[in-house]
Amino acid sequence: MARHMNKKIFLADFVYEVETDFGIDGTPASWASTDNGKPAHRYWDDEDDEVELQFFDNQKRGEIGNFAASHDEKLVAASSGSIIGVYNLETEKHCMQFQGLAFPCVKLMFGPTLNEFGGYLLVIETSDRDERKSAVFFMELNQDGYMTHKPDTINVDELLQKSLEPVVSVMNDSFGVSSTSPLLESVRKGYGKALEKLRAGIESRHLSRVAGRPSGFGSSPFSIDGRLFLYLIQNESTQSGPRPPADLPKVIVYDMANKSQKHVLGGYEDAIMWTAFSPDSQYIATAAWDGTFKIFDVSTGDCKHVIGPTGGQCWSGAWSPDSKHILLCGMANQDSRGETFVAVYSAETAEQVNRFRDEQLRHWVRCAAWSARGEIAIVHEKNNVWIWEPFENKTISSFKVKVDDGMKERFAAVSAVQWVNGGEVLVARAGDDTVEIWNRVKNIKWRIQRPEGAGVERGIGMLRWSKEDRALRTFSRDGYMRSYHL
C-alpha cells in the first residue's frame, strides 16, 4: 500500500535527533553554559517568558498562518485566512483587525515607510490558486500600529437580512415558501459570499496595490531606502507549452513613492524563482527556471550580466554584505540527475570566484545566508547544512538531522537559517520547528526542541533574535510569543 506523508502525520511520531552536529575542525560544538539556571538543551515548554498575543476577535488556538515583525521589534502582524491583525508589543495591545481581503493572505512583511511622519508599512500578499490571481497590498500604519486611514465597512449580516426580505416575501406569498425553507438556503449562502467580497472591496479600496506577487526563497524585494519594490507578473511556468514573448514572466521594479512602474525586466523563458536587491541597492539579481541568473543595473534597468544557462533550473541566491559578490544556486546538467550548482561570482565582472562541491550535493539549494564575517550557510533540500568560506573555498562546518525514514527526510530537514550577532551566531530551524543555535566563534550551542506530541497548531511561525538581552523569541501558531534567554 502506498504511504502518504504530510506535516501532521510527520509530527505525530517524529523524534528529533542530530546525525551530524555543527563543529569546527572536527571538534563538535559543546553545550553552552548558562547564567539563568536553564540548560542549553531545553524544550518549548521551558521558556523564560510567555506572552499571549491577541491578533483577532475570538482568536482560536492554531489558527495563525503568517507572521511579520517590524524593524524595531515593536509591532507584530499575523494573518488568519483573509484576516490581518496587528499587536503592539510595547503597549501590549491589539491595534487593529483588517478584513478587506478577497483572497487568503499567503505572506506578510514590513517594509521601510516613506512618509515624513514615521510609522510603518505593512505589505500583504494575497493569492487565489483556483483563479490564479495574486495581489500585493500596501498598508500604512501610524507609530502605534493603527491604520492611518480608517477603512469603510459594511455589516454583511444586516445587509443580507434586509436584502433578502423582499425575496422571502414574494416566495412566501406566491409559493408558500417560508424564510426557513431549504430552498432559500443556497440563495442565502451565495448572496452572503457576494456581500463578503463587496465588503472586502470597500474596506480595501483606499489601499495601494499591485497585481502580482514577490518571489520567494529568501528574496529581498525592497531597496535599502524603501523606495523600490520588486514583484513578478505572468510568472506561470512555460514547461507545459511555449507562450508569446509578451506573455512571458517579468520582474516589475515598482516606485513606491510615485506608485508607478520604474522598470520592466524581461528576457525570461520560464518562471522566476528569486529576486533580490544588493545591500547597496545598486543591482538587482534574479534566478529563473530557464537556467539563467541575471544581474540588472537599478538606475537604468539594463541587464548587466547573464550567467548561464546552467543546464537546469535556477532557484536562489544570496548577496555578500558588501554587494561585491553573489552566491547563485541551481541545477546543472539536470538530465543526468545529479549536478547541483552553487557558486560565488563577482557582481562587477560576472566571473566565477569559487564553486562549492560536496559529494552529497545532488538536490536543490533553496536557502542560503551570507554572514557579516564572510561565511555562507548553504541549506540543502536533502537535509544538509554546510558553512562555506567561499574565498578560501573551505567548508567550515556541516549539520544534518537524523532521519531513518526516507519519506520523512524532506519534512525533517532544516528549512531556514539566519546569521545574528554580527555573524557570530547561526540560528537554524529544522522541519519539526526545533531550533538550533550555534556560536561559530566559541563553538558552543543551544537547542530549543519541539516536545514529542506537539502538533501543527503549536508550530513556530517566526523567530527573532534580541541582541540586547541575548534572547531568542518564537512566535507560534497558538498565539504565543515565547522568549529563551541564552
From TrEMBL:
Superkingdom to which the source organism belongs: Eukaryota
WD repeat ranges, renumbered to this chain: 265-306, 407-439
Keywords attached to this entry: Repeat, WD repeat
Pfam family name, one: WD40
PANTHER family referenced in this protein's UniProt entry, alphabetically: F-BOX AND WD REPEAT DOMAIN CONTAINING 7, WD40 REPEAT PROTEIN
Protein name per UniProt: WD40 repeat-like protein
Organism: Aureobasidium vineae
